[in-house]
Design goal:
single chain; 727 residues; alpha/beta; N-terminal domain of TfIIb; Rossmann fold; Dimethylsulfoxide Reductase, domain 2; 4 domains; seven-stranded mixed beta sheet; six-stranded mixed beta barrel; 28 strands; globular; binds iron/sulfur cluster; 4Fe-4S; NADH dehydrogenase activity; nitrate assimilation
């Protein structure tokens, strides 16, 4: 136990992990965090999950980068495992815990001064621009960046380097959801906050293991169920919330469109839709009705999604049948990566939107569309313009009037062409159309699909600068590495899944020569001829907010200790606007669009050679590529190893014993890890968390993209599992 000392100080901030954005209070002693507690806030009511409560010690890890590093010379090939397939051979080359072996990697670099490193970055990036044009440059920002850092990073790429090739991991999580939301209701934001589930009669959770990925939000759902809300869970994999559900539809992987079209079929056929809402607030009903009535009767859809026709009808009636008091049920819909990370992810989201529009479940208390945002600032980084086709606040780069507005604000001429997305940039690097990259806080070598291809792409860049707090896997490909400040070492704003903008406050001083990220971006900008001078991150925020409609009423000062929601049109507004679109949608017609979606199968289906379906995702204790949580003692102790979860019946059929090592192979590579029997996994599928370098799930995944959101199909590819050879 931590005994409070008189010299301890307390700092109010926000959790650095997931999009729930829990309010925290850190107890600090001698520039070290010794304790974290939850604070009272509308977001978490003092609650924290295991990551928030115990996962802060990574910031004090001895492997923190403290000095700029420059690659020595070509004697050291770029990347950690040239010639190897990550996953099989890396097991021998990693220290316990699977994180980077610094002794192995560091000799490829030498320490440098900030002046030398920044000069080199500016010289090489401008050199590539002169020789190959601005379109040969690209940048990945991060959903771990603050709004201020994200705004400056995209400004540097656009106004300083002349390219819209700037993206971040939103492309890997909710790009398809945003594409569908923008198309249908004219805004990519959630329409209501998650805590309003307390006012819902029905809560639909689909494609989301909420207890693992948004744990504190899941407590609000459980509370609502205890108070009478009916919970519907739709997922190919069971999880803790399904124990609370009145219906759990364990659909076949990738069959969401068939399932939801069948539910809409029943709603329409049985007269359970909100006809007034459909008539007054939507368009496209006739086309949708025609498709779902013709092709998706429960008996037809059942053969695709695996749910019995009567169960499909029961679920539709729970959503649409009037309650005892005659009211229509109010429904709030939550979805996660299980919906979005498919080649038909946009179709999946379109179906959920249609379901809400048909039943009038938008714009009122207890209703709404809520794609649960993954990282702590994936909403804000997108709001701030870390997206290749839009400036801050989703203003299209292709619109001449909007472009002129940003040209006036930034004092330069801007590229009218939308830029490339994450996977397109990687493909561009492979084909040498992208030659130089600036990566700030992202780790595509573990997070992107088909990472042997990513490795080839990163290795073939003429120049790569990585700014990070650790020598994460991607940094091993860098020419220059810049030591950044961790979440706890700076002030900045972060926007949670509810659209709540909160101030993360500086808790600790940075180690060694590590610098604040926003200042490093400004240092590079000045060197390439773009003056960026700000006295503080609050001043950066003011510039960003003034260029938007939704953040306009917000300042660091008026956000207080628990933040405010955007839109906040008036600085005096108490908490921003909670429920959006009560009267009209921000579309050209003011109506929501119903988009009919035929069922399409996944890009790569199982066959004789690769008979199982791979599903990837996260576990409660770890976060994305593990660079933070695998350096947190408590979290790594609870979940130290990579594993593949397989249904016991499949294990028996394959002759594999629970707990033994297996090889999992796809057409793109092989990894080796422990097999775990797990009844929540659908028979015929396997689940692998993607946090573990030594058994990197993304060796196996496909880089096939959804055509609208350009999101890869992380949730579906064909694999084979076999016992590993004895070592
Ligand atoms: Fe942090 Fe999310 Fe856990 Fe809250 S639920 S403590 S924001 S990881």
């Amino acid at each position: 136990p931590v005994i409070p000392q008189p010299e301890d100080r307390q700092v109010e901030s926000v959790c650095p992990y997931c999009g729930v954005g829990c309010a925290t209070e850190y107890t600090v002693r001698d520039n070290s965090i010794v304790l974290c507690d939850g604070r009272e806030s509308p977001v978490n009511h003092e609650r924290l999950c295991v990551k928030g409560r115990y996962g802060w010690d990574y910031t004090m890890h001895p492997q923190r980068l403290t000095t700029p590093l420059i690659r020595r010379d070509d004697a050291y090939p770029k990347g950690p495992l040239s010639g190897d397939v990550v996953g099989t051979s890396s097991r021998k080359r990693r220290k316990p815990g699977g994180i980077v072996d610094y002794d192995e990697v560091l000799p490829a670099f030498r320490e440098a001064t900030w002046e030398e490193a920044l000069d080199l970055v500016a010289e090489r990036l401008t050199g590539i621009r002169s020789e190959h044009g601005s379109s040969a440059l690209a940048g990945f920002g991060s959903a771990k960046c603050s709004n201020e850092e994200a705004y400056l990073f995209q400004k540097l790429l656009r106004a300083g380097l002349g390219t819209n090739n700037v993206d971040h991991c939103t492309r890997l999580c909710h790009a398809s959801s945003v594409a569908a939301l923008m198309e249908t209701i004219g805004s990519g934001a959630v329409t209501n906050v998650f805590a309003d589930v307390a006012n819902a009669d029905v809560c639909l959770v689909t494609g989301s293991n909420t207890t693992a990925n948004h744990p504190v939000a899941a407590t609000f759902i459980k509370e609502a169920v205890r108070n009478g809300t009916k919970l519907l869970c739709v997922d190919p994999r069971g999880h803790t919330l399904t124990d609370f559900a009145s219906h759990f539809a364990q659909i076949r992987s990738g069959s969401d469109v068939a399932f939801y079209n069948a539910v809409m079929h029943v709603l329409i056929a049985e007269g359970l839709i909100d006809e007034q809402f459909v008539a007054e607030r939507t368009e496209g009903f006739d086309e949708l009705k025609k498709l779902v009535l013709r092709d998706f009767a429960p008996e037809q859809a059942s053969s695709i999604c695996g749910i019995e026709p009567d169960e499909l009808r029961a679920i539709a009636r729970t959503i649409g049948q009037p309650l005892e008091d005659g009211r229509r049920p109010r429904m709030l819909v939550f979805w996660g990566m299980g919906i979005s990370q498919h080649t038909h992810g946009t179709d999946n989201a379109r179906c959920l939107i249609s379901l809400c529009l048909l039943t009038g479940n938008v714009g009122k208390p207890g209703t709404g569309l809520h794609p649960l945002r993954g990282q702590n600032n994936v909403q804000g980084a997108s709001d701030a313009g870390l997206i290749p086709m839009v400036y801050p606040d989703y203003q299209p780069v292709s619109d001449p009037e909007i472009r002129a507005k940003f040209e006036r604000a930034w004092g330069v001429e801007l590229d009218p062409e939308p830029g490339l997305t994450v996977v397109e940039i990687v493909k561009g690097a492979l084909g040498k159309s992208i030659r130089g990259m600036y990566i700030l806080g992202e780790n595509p070598f573990l997070s992107d699909p088909n990472i042997n291809k990513v490795r080839a792409a990163l290795s073939s860049l003429d120049f790569l600068v990585v700014q990070d707090i650790f020598l994460a896997e991607t940094a091993e490909f860098a020419d220059v590495i810049l030591p950044a400040s961790s979440y706890f070492e700076k002030d900045g704003t972060f926007t949670n899944t509810d659209r709540r903008v909160q101030v993360g406050r500086k808790v600790l001083d940075s180690p060694g020569e590590a610098r604040q990220d926003w200042q490093v971006i400004c240092d590079i900008a000045r060197r390439i001829g773009l003056p960026m001078e700000y006295a503080s991150s609050a001043e950066v925020f003011d510039e960003f907010a003034a260029l938007t409609g939704h953040y306009r009423g917000l300042t660091h000062e008026n956000l207080g200790s628990t933040g405010k929601l955007w839109p906040c049109p008036d600085p005096e507004h108490e908490d921003g606007v909670q429920i959006l679109f009560g009267d009209r949608f921000p579309t050209a017609s003011g109506r929501g669009k119903l988009v009919p979606c035929p069922y399409l199968p996944a890009d790569e289906l199982p066959d004789e050679e690769y008979p199982l379906i791979l599903n990837t995702g996260r576990v409660l204790e770890h976060w994305h590529t593990g660079s933070m949580t695998r350096r947190s003692r408590a979290l790594d102790a609870i979940q130290p190893n990579a594993f593949v979860a397989i249904h016991p019946d499949d294990l028996t059929r394959l002759g594999i014993v629970d707990g033994t090592r297996v090889q999992v192979s796809s057409r793109r590579g092989t990894i080796e890890l422990e097999a775990r029997a797990d009844r929540t996994v659908e028979i015929g599928t396997v689940f692998i968390p993607f946090h573990f370098r030594e058994a990197a799930a993304n060796v196996l995944t496909t880089d096939a993209l959804d055509p609208f959101g350009k999101i890869p199909e992380f949730k579906f590819c064909a694999v084979r599992v076999e016992a590993a050879a004895e070592s």
